[in-house]
Amino acid sequence: MAQSNDFQPGEKRDFSGQKLKKLPKEVLALGSDLLYLNLQNNRLKCLSGISALSKLRELNLSSNDLSEFPQEIEQLKNLESLYLSQNGIGKIPEGIFSQLGKLKFLKLSTNHLKGLPSDLGQCKSLWYLNLSNNYLKDVKVLEALCSLKELYVKNNKLIELPAGLFFNTELTMFKADGNPLSKPPEEVCAGGVKSIQHYFNTLGSSEQRVCRVKTMFLGSSMAGKSTICYSLRKGLPVLVDAAERTVGIEISEVLLGGVHFLFWDFAGHEEYYFTHHVFITPQALVILTINLGSYDVRDPESFRDSVSFWIKNVHLRVPGAVVLVVGTHSDKCKDAEDVQKKKADIEMKIKDMLEQQRANLERWKKNREEDRKEPAQFSHQLTDFQQCTEHNLKVLDLVPMDCTKPEEIEKFQRYILCQVQNKELFPNIENILPKLYQDVESSIEELKEEKDIPEHGVMSFDEILKELKGKLENLDQKDLQPILRYLHRIGIIVWYEEIAALQETVFVEPSFLIKLFKTVVRHDLVNQLEGISRKQLIEENSLAINQVKWINDLMAKATLHNTAIRVLLRKSLKELDIDDEDFLDEIVGTRSSDGMFLGLLRQFEICLPAKLISPLNPEASEFVPKKKWELSNTSVRNRDGACLFPSHLKDNNVVLKMWGEDRKDDIQVQVYFLPEVPHGFFHRLIIKSCSFYPVHWVGKDHCLLSASDRLVLLKETRLRGDQLIEIRCKRQPSANASTAADIWRPSWDMILVVLGRLTELTQQWPGLCLYVCSPCTEDGCSDHFTWPDWKELDVHDLHNVQKNEKMVCSNGHKHRTELLFPKVGSHSAVPGDQLQI
Ligand SMILES: Nc1nc2c(ncn2[C@@H]2O[C@H](COP(=O)(O)OP(=O)(O)OP(=O)(O)O)[C@@H](O)[C@H]2O)c(=O)[nH]1
Questions:
Q1: Residue that is last in its domain, among 203, 220, 243
Q2: 537 in a structural domain
Q3: Is residue 685 in some structural domain?
Q4: Residue of the nearest CA to atom 1 in ligand 1?
Q5: pLDDT score, position 619
Q6: Residue whose CA is closest, atom 24 of ligand 1?
Q7: From which residue to which does the signal peptide run (predicted)?
Q8: Within 10 Å of residue 733's Cβ, how many Cβ atoms?
Q9: Are residues 395 and 332 part of one domain?
Q10: Which long-range contacts (CB under 8 A, 24 or more apart) does 125-128 make?
Q11: Of 577, 267, 248, 234, the residue nearest 412 (C-alpha)
């Protein structure tokens, strides 16, 4: 790719971000002298006259309003680099690319392309091609691009990839996430070109077609999820006892009409949802179960609890999911008319809710488009909005059902089968897999039966590979990786490759893992503590007096003593009939060493390790008058150890007492969440941020972090109907700071660390869109200053894009720039110079 600085001053022109609607005459007059032209971020709809620039080697037309591919480009026979991303191009006519024999670099991402012209294959020098975010179903033509080194086809509609693409070209970089791929499946592509080549090589003649779909049952407690699950499995109504509540998630497999359904039955209590979201994975069928009998059309709470809570969370976590809504207990409704009334009400409210969310996003997007002053710096915020508005949660019409009737169960079986076989809804339930996949899966089953895999099923990648090699001699690491990724997607195992701390750990028995979590992540934790027997206390060398303290500390400080966790865990493991003492010790741990369970809780960011010495700051050491106060020794583990579970926090009193009043001259950053702050997000942010700043105070939706003389407050709040997390820091001039920017540096350091953690977290919710700004702090002014694309910049850039000493809001209020944006000196604010995102 040519760079603008490869050209002499007279050979290049930059007209980016000038709201141009047509090509400026002065440019066209340059004719064959011009080699480089940058027209990105304008409003161009056509390019009449561009053929005059016959020697052009690089042309940047990204972020314009082109809806048709400009035909005149065919005359720019010297073009080497062409940028056309973020336009609305729907079609490329035949015969253009056959004229562009020198083209090396082509960017066509984020357009509306449904197909590619056959002569694209004639661009034999093309080494970079970006076609991401289009609607392509077929890329066979690219097999002819023998020089191709980098290819991006993310977020298209590709089902199959042509094998020749990976054997005839020089491809080293290939990205295809977000396609409904069945050959090869997405998880093979995630392993890169080598993994795809390996897939096609091993596929050979051993090709197997496998139809499988992970099916997740979500909905409030008592809605009838387990009843449907069991009944579908049996093909007959199975009535579950009302006292029998699902704890955690139950997993089972059912074969219906040639399709394997992996049922994941999630417990309905909202408290359980905190650990559920990590198990809600893409490309699955979601069955949202609603109890029609108890649903009340006049009560907004009824819709919130039984419908919107679930739909909103699915939307944030798996934005492209298909949600099938089923209304159980139709026999408990007054009559058929009542059933229809409730059905119509729920469908209408869902439609309204999704439309409102969409309209809100559009409104934000439009605002951003209108007030973009230096577009290049804000283009990513816009792209985020664009992508969010394109997410399309498909919610199917509600199916009313009486789970006590055999004919309704049969009808529902046929219905879900019909839905998953609909290629529009589920383009890739069929996967074409090498036989090795089946061999590995069967071998895992055998190893379980032979007890070579421990009952808890928690193993390192290397251990599982070693065990499997005993059965499949030639299996190696590169074979196993995509197979485990596939088994994770369809719900047979759990493997969080993307979480650094869990990369090496494979959970071969997901339901066991989930049951363990439910020991402590549950709505009735206080009851569980109260229910501990004397015998169980003695086993952990504890007394009844300890039990009272455990309960009090949980209720007052949301902290659960590690000893109490051990007692509860031992109890639930015994209930699961696990009595192997060595195994129990390994999981439960002892007073002097943490068991595997505590490690898992922390790795999954469910709780924060804490100490119980100070009521304000669990990590701080005790203050004794006249004795030197020392920093707490974090290496002393477990003695007095406990875990903080933020979901049990009831108010913000402790935080507010330390922080005092908000002040007008606080520096403030607002992070708007669209459509909303996901359930459990703030609690995870508390855990992440407090792990970084050990001196902290926490509350229900507030958290205060401290480092040297700085305090940074985070709070989840609402403003004019929008949800946001606000980050504040009080003015605290440092005695030895020489400039105004230096005074604020330590505060911005902390804010940037928090923002880094926050962004890291948002990756778990792909349906989420963030908008970051600093508000104008004048009384009554609602204007704000948009942050540039801070995720993309390093800290120095962030300083450089704010050139002014003062900035003025649209209502004329002046602010010093260092109070609005991180203005750092010559050294970096965050270790490593780059925001750790
Ligand atoms: N009459 C009637 N009873 C139903 C129907 N569906 C479920 N039930 C009963 O409703 C109760 C709750 O059903 P479950 O299947 O346990 O509910 P769940 O959604 O799994 O609840 P959690 O385990 O708490 O998440 C059970 O007693 C079922 O027998 C139905 O269509 N009609």
A1: 203
A2: yes
A3: yes
A4: 329
A5: 56
A6: 221
A7: none
A8: 10
A9: yes
A10: 125/101, 127/170, 128/1, 128/104
A11: 234
| CATH code of the domain in which 759 resides | 3.30.310.200
Per-residue confidence band for 830, with pLDDT thresholds at 50, 70 and 90: very low
Average pLDDT value for residue range 540-545? 86
The type of residue at 779 is D
Q: Of the given ranges (204-208, 376-380, 634-638, 822-826), which has the lowest mean pLDDT?
A: 634-638
Same domain, 263 and 411: yes
Question: 450 CA to middle of ligand 1, Å?
Answer: 36
Both 502 and 530 in one domain: the answer is no
Weakest mean pLDDT among 9-23, 37-51, 480-494, 750-764: 9-23
310-363 pLDDT, tens digit each: 999 999 988 888 999 999 999 999 999 999 999 999 999 999 999 998 888 888
Is residue 241 domain-resident? yes
In the chain, the number of structural domains is 5
807 and 674 within one domain = yes
Measured in angstroms, how far is the CA atom of residue 525 from the centroid of ligand 1? 23
Please tell me the distance from the alpha carbon of residue 134 to that of residue 111, in angstroms, as a whole number: 5
- Its domain, for residue 362, covers 208-420
Residue 428 lies in a domain: no
Please determine, for the modelled complex, whether the ipTM score is greater than 0.95. Answer: yes
CA of 716 to the centre of ligand 1 (A): 35
Token look-up 């989840």 returns: 716
Last residue of a domain, one of 646, 670, 704: 646
Ligand 1 proximal residues by C-beta, below 6 Å: 219, 221-227, 239-240, 242, 245-246, 267-268, 289, 328-329, 331-332, 401-404
What pLDDT does 638 receive?
42
Instruction: Give the per-residue pLDDT at 820.
Output: 82
d(CA 181, CA 190) in angstroms, rounded, equals: 11
Residue nearest to atom 14 of ligand 1 (CA): 224
CATH number reported for the structural domain that contains residue 459 in this entry = 1.10.10
For the stretch 574-628, pLDDT in tens is 887 777 788 788 888 887 778 888 888 877 788 888 765 544 455 556 556 666 6
Q: Concatenate the DSSP letters of all residues of 36-63 into one string.
A: EEE--SS--S--TTGGG-TT--EEE--S
What average pLDDT does range 776-787 have in this prediction?
Answer: 84
Mean pLDDT of 3-16: 70
Q: Are strands 322-328 and 394-395 parallel, antiparallel or unpaired?
A: parallel
Both 220 and 199 in one domain: the answer is no
Cis peptide leading into residue 510 (ω within 30°): no
Q: What is the distance in A from the centroid of ligand 1 to the CA of 290?
A: 10
Rounded to an integer, what distance in angstroms lies between the CA atom of residue 505 and that of residue 459? 6
- Fill in the amino acid letter for 157: K
Other beta carbons within 10 Å of 674: 23
Closest CA to 793 of 756, 743, 746: 756
Give the Å distance between the CA of 330 and the centre of ligand 1: 12
Residue 268 and residue 301 in one domain? yes
Residues in Cβ contact with 815 at an 8 Å cutoff, skipping those fewer than 6 apart: 776, 777, 785, 806, 807, 808, 809
Closest residue by Cα to atom 8, ligand 1, is 224
Pocket test for ligand 1, best of 270, 403, 405, 524 (most atoms within 8 A of CB): 403
Q: How far is the CA of 526 from the centre of ligand 1 (A)?
A: 25
Residue nearest to atom 7 of ligand 1 (CA): 224
Is residue 214 domain-shared with residue 315, that is, in the same domain? Answer: yes
With beta carbons less than 8 A apart as the criterion, state whether 448 and 158 touch: no
